[in-house]
Design brief:
357 residues; mainly beta; 9-stranded antiparallel β-sheet; 27 strands; binds beta-D-glucopyranose
């Protein structure tokens, strides 16, 4: 008799997008009561349900119940961001002697892949796996040469894998036929209280970073990496997000430079977050050199999400692991170029637990 697999993937229709294409919703479940829902529209994580310290289940990411809401403007809730996450100054870069102009969708600059980025396309469902070790979904997308102004046909896969030790592992792979910049991330907004706290400012956070990427008033890097020590940017010791917020004009929206112990180390610890009302903990690990710590400064109460929650300013925070913004124009930053014949591979892990006393 075939044994039932302990981790499962439920697959169901999730409606249609504007051009009539049917999309689906996948629910990954493990045996500890964690479920992760993902749609192949934009690769959006629509829900992550985890138990709190008393065993009560709650949804810890911002988002909507229906595809119709995801088709309206929203600030990248839960989606895959690409071809280049964050900003490229004036939407321009030069490579191999040729200048490229990208779509400008953030004032004079390019943001999160342009007007139709990877967050607004239908991804092909490549693989669904249920086993004793993981429940996983692999999505694929071919970004054509010239899309949003980028060079080269870029073939991308993103896999989401939920394990029984409560990790959600997101793996990004890509290859290209022309040299292109690439920067892929997931833009989930978290509020680990699952509806208990009115914003994320009491979450206690520790970031494994001694420096952050300095930016100008358009959030474009100046090229300097600045020490966090003795500044309100310092999260090397855990403390509430809101503690020094009044000293950070505009609020946290910065790329932290993740500390790596050795030059050979690729996967590093990024962050530890504790939510005091429910005692949920989230840890983040990644192979990427940076993490955008963004605390929903631009949320303004006009969006109403799942469970009728009003998304006011600072309702959720993001830890978008990625390369530094504007790397194509900043030769001193870690390279974000992908050349033909190379294999792009980055991995980010979100690990969920609760604090026990
Ligand atoms: C950026 C913010 C932006 C937000 C939503 C974040 O990744 O750093 O500046 O407002 O995404 O678009």
């Amino acid at each position: 008799m075939e044994q039932s697999k302990c981790l499962t993937v439920k697959r169901e229709p999730f409606g249609k997008v504007l051009d009539g294409i049917s999309i689906e919703l996948f629910t990954l479940s493990n045996s500890n009561g964690i479920t992760v829902k993902i749609t192949n529209y934009g690769g959006i994580i629509t829900s992550i349900i985890t138990p709190d310290t008393t065993g009560r289940a709650g949804d810890i990411v911002l988002g909507f119940d229906s595809i119709e809401d995801y088709l309206k403007p929203h600030p990248y809730f839960g989606c895959i961001v690409g071809r280049y996450a964050n900003r490229i100054a004036e939407g321009k870069f030069k490579v191999e002697g040729q200048e490229y102009s990208l779509a400008k969708n953030n004032g004079p600059n390019h943001l999160h892949g342009g007007i139709v980025g990877f967050d607004k396309v239908v991804w092909e469902v490549k693989e669904v796996t249920e086993s004793d070790n993981e429940a996983s979904l692999k999505l694929a997308y071919l970004s054509k040469d010239g899309e949003e102004g980028y060079p080269g046909n870029l073939s991308v896969t993103v896999s989401y894998s939920l394990t029984n030790d409560n990790q959600l592992i997101i793996t990004y792979d890509a290859s290209t036929d022309k040299t292109t910049p690439i920067n892929l991330t997931n833009h989930s907004y978290f509020n680990l209280s699952a509806g208990q706290a009115k914003n994320c400012l009491d979450h206690v956070i520790k970031l494994n970073a001694d420096k952050y990427v300095e930016v100008n008033d358009q959030y474009i890097p100046t090229g300097n990496l600045v020490d966090v020590a003795s500044t309100p940017m310092d999260f090397t010791n855990p403390h509430p997000i809101g503690e020094f917020l009044d000293k950070v004009p505009g609020g946290y929206d910065h790329t932290y430079v993740i500390k790596k112990e050795g030059t050979k180390e690729k996967m590093a610890y990024v962050a530890w977050v504790h939510e005091p009302l429910t005692n949920r903990i989230m840890e983040v690990y990644s192979t990427q050199p940076g993490a955008q710590f963004y605390i929903g400064n631009f949320l303004d109460g006009t969006l109403i999400g799942k469970n009728d929650i009003v998304y006011n300013k600072h309702y959720g925070f993001c830890l978008e692991t990625h390369h530094f913004p504007d790397s194509p124009n900043q030769p001193s930053f870690p390279s974000a170029w992908l050349h033909p014949g190379e294999k792009f591979n980055e991995i980010t892990i979100y690990k969920f637990s609760t604090k026990s006393y």
